[in-house]
């Protein structure tokens, strides 16, 4: 799901448009936290570890 801050509307993103956890094949990601806070650019391994510790999936929205 994608939450748009401008309109407060919820949009559904098709599964084929997303890469999740082990499907992600980039070196670094711009990480956004659970509350929408910017966590910065992180190596993929660190981002995945943070997601694992929070018990959530890491989702690549735009490659």
Automatic annotation (TrEMBL):
Residues 20-63 form the Translation initiation factor 3 N-terminal domain. The keyword Protein biosynthesis applies. It holds the Pfam family IF3_N. GO terms for molecular function: translation initiation factor activity. InterPro entries: T_IF-3_N_sf, Translation_initiation_fac_3_N. Gene3D superfamilies: Translation initiation factor 3 (IF-3), N-terminal domain. The keyword Lyase does not apply. It comes from the Bacteria. Keywords: Initiation factor, Protein biosynthesis. This is Translation initiation factor 3.
